[in-house]
Every structure is written in C-alpha cells, then in structure tokens.
Amino acid sequence: MQCLECGCEVASLDNTHLLHCCSLTLQEYAIRHHLPLDLILDRREVNKADSIESYKPPKVLPSERARAVFMGLKWAGLLHREDRFTLVPGEIRRLDLLLWDLHWLREYGFRFRQEYRYADAAHRVVAVNRLKVPAAYLAQSAEVHLSPVPPPDFVLSLAVLIAHIGELQAGYLFLQLPQRSVGETIMAETSRYGLRFKELDAADHPDGVLLRTLTCADAAKLLALIKDRLIEIPGALQRFEQQTPRMTVTKALVFDAAHFITDHPAKCSNLHGGRYTLNVRVEGRVDPVTGCVVDYGYLKRVATKQVIDRFDHHNLNYAAAELAWRSSTEILCAFIWEQLIEYLPGLVELQLYETTQSWCNYSGPSLEAFQQSGSDRLMTHFNDQRLGQSKLRALIRNRPPALEVVAKLQR
After folding, report:
1. Do domains 154-241 and 246-383 have the same CATH topology?
2. How far is CA 294 from CA 48, 188, 285, in A?
3. pLDDT digit string (tens) for 118-149?
C-alpha cells in the first residue's frame, strides 16, 4: 500500500507510520484523502481490546494546573466510565485540544487512544478518539482530584469548561451542564467577578441545567476574564473570534389546534381548527468547531417544549392568557417569539401557516431589546391592571344595593 503523504510503500498504514511521516493520525489521513477507514485499516485493529498493563502508574500528587484542568473537564461532564477505564472523549476536528488535555492529564496516568470499531448502525468502521486511564488509578488519589474544594485556579477550570462545551449565539454564551450542582457553583463563583447567568429550562441532561449569560455584556466580560487562559488552549479562542460565514437555518414544526376569533364579523368567530406549520429561522455565524449555526436537535427541543407541547391538540384561546381574546396568526407569532427568544437569541423570523393559503411572517425584537421592553402591549390589554379604571365604567356600574337602603332611611 502506498502512503499518499510520503509516497512510500508500506505493508499497512497505521498511526506509527503516519505520525512519523506527516504527524497525522489514521483518521485525519482518511479524511484528508476522503477514503473510508475500511479500505486502509488493518482489520486486526478493529475492536481491539485495550490492556491495563500498558498504562504507567500516575503521579502521587498531580500539579495544581493538572487539578484545574481535571476539574474543568469534570464540570463539563467529560469524564466517562467504560468497563475498567475512565475516559475523556474527543473529536477529530479538535484533536489538538484533546492532546492539550493529555499534556496535563498524563499526571493522572491518562494516555491517548484512537480506537476503531465496526458500527452496526452506520455499517462501517468508525474511529473514536479519547484519553483513557484505568479507573483504579483515579481511585488511588480520589481525595486529591475529586475534592469538592474548588481548585486553586478557578479561572483556568472555567476556561477549560468553556473551551470544551461553551457555545456562542448572537453574542450570548451558553453552557449545557450535566449537573445542576455544577451550575450553582459556576454562578456563585462567577458572581464574584460581577458576571450574571440565567437558567433556561432546556437542559439535555435529566439532572443538568442550561445556563446563558444574562446579557451580551456578561458574555464579553466573561470571555475577557478567561482570554489569557483560552489563548493557550488550542482552537479555544478562535472558536469564539474566528470570522466565519453567516447563515440562516430553519426548523419546520407542526401542531394541530382549534381556536376562535372573538367579535370577528364572519365565520372565524366560530370554533374551528386545523394543522399549523411553524418555521423557526435562526441566523448566525457558523461555529468552526461544530460546523453549525445552531444544533437542529436543540432548536427542535426548545420549540417543541415552549410552543408545540403547549398548543398541540388544544384550544389556543385557552392555552395562554395572551391569546384569550384573539389567537390570530399575527398575535400567535408575537407570542411565540417571546417564548423562544430567550433560548434562541439568533432568532430572526417566524413563519406561521394556518392554511396553505394563509400565513404570517414576523421578525420581532432582539433578546436585548426584549429584556429592556418586556412583552408587547399588543398581548397585554386584558392583563393590564388599569383595565376597568376608566371613568366611563360608571355609566354601566350599578349602585350597590346596601347604599340604596341607607339613602332611603336617611330620607
């Protein structure tokens, strides 16, 4: 077999040859030359078992920086248990980030592994990149690296966390955390630096929490706080600052609902219903790490929980106070916008079809503007505490019977 990098004839391509030849792993080589792993991989490497005996014992006391990196990965939920090993998963696009983790986690006994498995669902051989260590090695010094006491360099742990799982949307930083207790720690510690977060009801872990910086200014201040740490982490700062194309993505969802239009002069005042189609459009820069503007799964989960589950097979007029008077497509769009903008700050347009011939397009306020102005007055008329205080109400207000009796007695 000929190596397409150096031109040498080799018995088989593997990481030993490629890392000396061109510093690429086999998976990177396959991607660069758009080749399936099945064609170039020695079949004996597929589903090959790992041996604990090949791992060197760890240091007795890891350094403070190693502890800080370990804590950041733990906060991010990136320490997984598999059989007798603890591992840190990585992605081939961010291999240098994984190797930066390895630089510090070697003190715990971690080693890099690119392993190959036949994936039944994909019908092909896939590569997985991770750092691995025998779980027993970590248990030997659990009091050191699993201590609930924050590590000496909290800012470094925070930078490691954000470098691995932080996502920037329309200037707001999101953190999807696997444990609520971690979120509480992050909010408490960062409040000392004047940073504010908002908890959103869209965690993708049963016991987790989704945090978003309260404002764009909080996100900018947070990134400035950890910038010196991010600079040393491969690709971390570039993820948030690199200029990439801006695009708009759309998710279409449907729900079946009934409604009526109060005081409508025609048939729409009667209860009627049908199938609505909602197109949610989000605009933003393409994340150089994920290759996405926003994850479609997240977009669907948010829209389903905040809108579809609330409306599907319901009478819209009774689904929310804001819709009780008139649940027109126009007011529906304004209401839906306010339910989504906290979760999707890059939201640029809603398109709602009541029928194939009737629909509404709406672009509402930015999250920053919504935070300042609150709900649109279009939907708050009947919830306004001033409603009913007009002097004109005296024209239809009957005098209380008790007062009439007192007046007669006085006469």
Report:
1. no
2. 36, 28, 9
3. 999 989 999 999 999 999 998 865 555 455 54
> CB-side exposure of 217: number of CA atoms within 13 Å?
5
Q: Is the Cβ–Cβ distance between 248 and 298 less than 8 Å? A: no
Span 240-274, pLDDT tens digits: 999 999 999 999 999 999 999 998 899 888 889 89
Residue 351 sits at φ, ψ, to 5 deg, of -130, 115
Which 8-state DSSP code applies to residue 261?
B
**Which residues form the catalytic set?**
268, 313, 354
Contact between 111 and 103 under an 8 Å Cβ cutoff? The reply is no
> In this structure, are residues 124 and 36 in contact, taking their beta carbons and an 8 Å threshold?
yes
Residue 409 has pLDDT above 70, yes or no: no
The burial of 119, by beta-carbon neighbours within 10 Å (0-12 exposed, 13-18 middle, 19 or more buried), is given as: exposed
DSSP alpha helix (H) spans, 33-176: 37-40, 64-75, 95-105, 135-140, 142-145, 154-165
Domain 154-241: give its CATH superfamily: Homing endonucleases (3.10.28.10)
Domain map (residue ranges) of the chain: 1-45, 46-145, 154-241, 246-383
The H or E element spanning position 131 is strand 124-134
Q: What is the pLDDT of residue 58?
A: 86
- pLDDT at residue 146, as a whole number: 52
Residue type, 257: A
Q: Which two tokens stand for residue 90?
A: 């990585």
Distance from C-alpha of 173 to C-alpha of 215, rounded to nearest angstrom: 9
> What CATH architecture applies to the domain 46-145?
Roll (3.10)
For the question of whether the overall pTM of this predicted structure is more than 0.85, the answer is: yes
DSSP 46: B
Q: Which residue type occupies 188?
A: A
Which pair of tokens denotes residue 231?
């600079």
Q: How many Cα neighbours within 13 Å face the side chain of 63?
A: 8
CB atoms within 10 A of CB 235: 17
The CATH number assigned to the domain with range 246-383 reads 3.30.479.10
